[in-house]
Design a protein that fits this description.
This protein is α+β, with helices and mostly antiparallel strands. The protein is built from 1 helix and 5 strands. Strands 1-2-3-5-4 form a 5-stranded mixed beta barrel. The longest helix is centred in the N-terminal third of the chain and has 26 residues.
Length: 120
Amino acid sequence: MKFVIKICLSTLLPVILSCKETDRAKTMCGCIGPADKQIVNEMVQYVGGGRFNIQPITVDGIPLQALATACSVNGGWIVSTEISKPNYVISGNTKLSCQPGYSSYRGPIEIEITKITKMP
């Protein structure tokens, strides 16, 4: 009987521990996770639903255009009426991506906005 219990424990324990590690990894990304990179005074276009189209920026020497989702949405933000004209300037902290293999600006971006200014 003790042998059966030892076998069960040795089989189930790694499975239980791996599940807890996966849950921990999920809490270390996205809006609930730590900051990844800081952006300062980036011109963006608000497209609705808490999403901002970040105008072309250069990251690691590569020009990129990205779509970022705000961690906290303000119902007073106004959707841009011109497709190529930014209507806000934002600063904030991007969050680690929950998508395996992606980092900020190379995958889905979530951002904690620390400052937002409406452009004229």
